[in-house]
UniProtKB/TrEMBL annotation:
<protein>
    <submittedName>
        <fullName>Phosphate ABC transporter ATP-binding protein PstB</fullName>
    </submittedName>
</protein>
<keyword id="KW-0547">Nucleotide-binding</keyword>
<dbReference type="InterPro" id="IPR003439">
    <property type="entry name" value="ABC_transporter-like_ATP-bd"/>
</dbReference>
<dbReference type="InterPro" id="IPR005670">
    <property type="entry name" value="PstB-like"/>
</dbReference>
<keyword id="KW-0067">ATP-binding</keyword>
<keyword id="KW-0592">Phosphate transport</keyword>
<keyword id="KW-0813">Transport</keyword>
<feature type="domain" description="ABC transporter">
    <location>
        <begin position="18"/>
        <end position="260"/>
    </location>
</feature>
<dbReference type="InterPro" id="IPR017871">
    <property type="entry name" value="ABC_transporter-like_CS"/>
</dbReference>
<dbReference type="InterPro" id="IPR003593">
    <property type="entry name" value="AAA+_ATPase"/>
</dbReference>
<dbReference type="GO" id="GO:0005524">
    <property type="term" value="F:ATP binding"/>
</dbReference>
<dbReference type="Pfam" id="PF00005">
    <property type="entry name" value="ABC_tran"/>
</dbReference>
<dbReference type="InterPro" id="IPR027417">
    <property type="entry name" value="P-loop_NTPase"/>
</dbReference>
């Protein structure tokens, strides 16, 4: 994979999938995210970068209402996916999270078989009418996550028995099994070795054909390799957002420049 992809079309020409306006997050009295507004494109990988504690994961969790599960968190502002306000009272967060899948930093397979890890979401969301349907869904998700060849002869073995990189691909299979439209990834490679990282990065590139992918990463090399758009956060502010090539070669804000040149963070 190239280290830096060619600069693509301007952000304004993206098909917007997610639109955030004036989003603030407080944890108790602490103001963690400050008035963030951004449009995130469809069928693109968007990277969130910035120093530790700048609010990347906080903002990522706003996009599928994972902050609802943190009692001290208070989210204000508006976030729309396909024009629908995801914080509307009529939106069921469980349904929302099927549409907006998430992969975490540490692979976290359920203590179940490989098959059941993938089948769980489609089962609870009623996506399969029969066992045969479910078999098809599981195979498709494992293929999408580039794990089918390694897993097909051990579907009934525990997911926790896979290697770290395989477990992360299993978690990706689990996330894509419910046919999400957006995939959120919070440092998905931080627990992986370079080979597994390369496999997951290739997979992210594949997945963007079908989804809007948002990835939080500490690795600027990774952001440059996998993303077409990059958002730089600093102290809870979204400082700069644009084409990945522009952010890394010609940042407009001195804070972005300092970060990418290694002076802050
Ligand atoms: N559950 C929580 N309760 C209270 N404060 C929190 C919680 N999660 C995050 N914070 C605070 O919110 C701020 C932003 O944290 P966040 O995890 O979003 O940053 P980040 O940019 O993802 O950091 P890192 O790169 O270290 O993961 C930090 O000051 C952090 O301490």
């Amino acid at each position: 994979m190239n280290d830096m992809r060619p600069i693509e079309r301007a952000t304004a020409l993206d098909d917007t999938k997610i639109s955030a306006k004036g989003v603030n997050v407080h944890y108790g009295a602490a103001h963690a995210l400050k008035d963030v507004s951004v449009d995130i494109g469809d069928r693109l990988v968007t990277a969130f970068i910035g120093p530790s504690g700048c609010g990347k994961s906080t903002f990522l969790r706003c996009l599928n209402r994972m902050n609802d599960t943190i009692p001290s968190a208070r989210v204000t502002g508006r976030i729309e996916i396909d024009g629908q306000d995801i914080y509307d009272r009529r939106v069921d967060p469980v349904q929302l999270r099927a549409k907006v899948g998430m992969v975490f930093q540490k692979p976290n397979p359920f203590p179940k078989s490989i098959y059941d890890n993938v089948a769980y979401g489609p089962k609870i969301h009623g996506l399969a009418r029969s066992r045969a349907d479910l078999d098809v869904i599981v195979e498709k998700a494992l293929r999408r996550a580039a794990l089918w060849t390694e897993a097909k002869d051990r579907l009934q073995s525990p997911g926790t028995g896979l290697s770290g990189g395989q477990q992360q691909r299993l978690c990706i299979a689990r996330a894509v099994a419910t046919e999400p439209e957006v995939l959120l990834m919070d440092e998905p490679c931080s627990a992986l070795d370079p080979i597994a990282t390369a496999q997951v990065e290739e997979l992210i590139d594949e997945l963007r054909q079908s989804y809007s992918v948002v990835i939080v990463t500490h690795s600027m090399q990774q952001a440059a390799r996998v993303s077409q758009r990059t958002a730089f956060f600093h102290l809870g502010n979204l400082v700069e957002y644009g084409e990945t090539g522009q952010i890394f070669t010609n940042p407009r804000d001195p804070r972005t420049e300092s970060y990418i040149s290694g002076r802050i963070g």
